[in-house]
Amino acid sequence: MREAGHRLIETVVSRLTTVAAGPPHATATPARLRPLLDEPLPEAPGSLAEAVDRVVRDALSHGIRFDHPRCFAFVPTTGTYPAVLADALAAAFHSVPGAWLVGAGPTQLELTTVRWLCELLGLPAGHSGLFLSGGSAANLTALAVARDDRLDGEGVPPGARLYCSSQAHPSVARAAHLVGLRRTQLVVLEPDAELRLPADRLRARLRADLAAGLRPFAVVATVGTTSTGAIDPLPELADICDEFGLWLHADGAHGAAAAITTRGREHCRGLARADSVTVDPHKWLFQPYEAGCLLLRRPELLRRSFAMDRHRLDTGYLRPARADGEEVNLDDYGPQQSRGLRALKLWLSLQTFGAEAFRRAVASGTELAEYAADHVRAIPGLELVTPASLGILTLRCVPAPGRADGPGSAGAADRLQEAVSAEVCAGGRAMVLTTDVRGRRALRLCVINPATTRGDIDETLALLAETGRRAHAAAPQRTAADGRRPGS
Ligand SMILES: Cc1ncc(COP(=O)(O)O)c(C=O)c1O
């Protein structure tokens, strides 16, 4: 055990400290990976150390390196070394913050970590919640509670309506489906010019839906849309929800973390008025997967939806594990019974680095995105599409303004962005993918890695501009690159 463990720690440390030396994305075709990994069930014992070496080489090394300083795709997380150790510790101790009887210490540790998270975000005392696998699970859990609280716990009547903007994360639509809403019951509003859920349009739609006899019950606001980092107007939306008696869920999977900084808290104004908040420590709080969190203004409502004895099934075997007095059974507060101690990652990271280091790291991501946006404005051949918001900016290559981007050539301009993304990713210096902004393709940078420097930004923007010029010049021959997926 020790020998394999020491080797493994060497591998972990080497992975964490040398990531910048390689490309931000390494991939392989199924034709290459299948012969390496799709092997028969091993009946006989083998060497643990050899298996570790092999899995690192043949499996774990093929994928996106989110912690690479020039990986700007999706929401790149960095992870911390204490968090890696935390996952191993939690596994070794079979830590289950489910029933108090099963995991008293782990449960208290999770409750404390949740309280710290609330404090970091500026949420008042009384807020609490639990750790989940990520933003999708947190959004699902929130909507289940919203449904049960606002629709009398009796399922979803046909008139029930949930509201969000088209910029909400797709996990919201999936959660709506899973809590029993039909497609038409999720009302998707077009965003305003800043890509935010428009409060006035929401109010008008609510009035019309109520007049038509429908039953609005909840609104999902996004605090940092994944595409552009847009922040829905929480204070206005909270006013509307108060007025109409609706549940307000804030999906801050990516962006709520900004509230741990002074400036970010101003951007996230109104967060405390949401009935529920999703925040993902595995995004902008630098934890490895899986670490999502749901925080509620009235956390006791979780029990109403998730208590194990809510339904009339025989729970006799659970009787010895009933919570007594001040004991808490977190398996009554969410969809999982056996649960891993995800909170330990954040707990150990906070113990090791201190909260101030987290604030500085989040602030540096915000500032770096602003630096990048300013730089885009100054570089010929690039144009800023959306300004830096919560560490995200979008831009476009415009090597010949008025030609590639001119009237009637939107398709060509879109293809140019895709070609630039594909070429830059394939080159191995940076990972930049595209998104759609107001129906047009744009390059998207999420700049939240504390290891990313201004030099990384300068290099990447210069590369994008230069690639844009070259791809534009080669436009007629570009069809081959068009079908190529970035990184392939
Ligand atoms: C705003 C938002 N909500 C939800 C999610 C889903 O989170 P997860 O991938 O952790 O399930 C994401 C993921 O990027 C997100 O950006």
TrEMBL record:
The modification N6-(pyridoxal phosphate)lysine is found at K283. It holds the Pfam family Pyridoxal_deC. Residues 468-488 are annotated as: Disordered. Keywords: Decarboxylase, Lyase, Pyridoxal phosphate. Its cofactor is pyridoxal 5'-phosphate. It comes from the Bacteria. Transmembrane segments: none annotated. One of its GO terms (molecular function) is aromatic-L-amino-acid decarboxylase activity. GO terms for biological process: amino acid metabolic process; carboxylic acid metabolic process. Belongs to the group II decarboxylase family. This is L-2,4-diaminobutyrate decarboxylase.
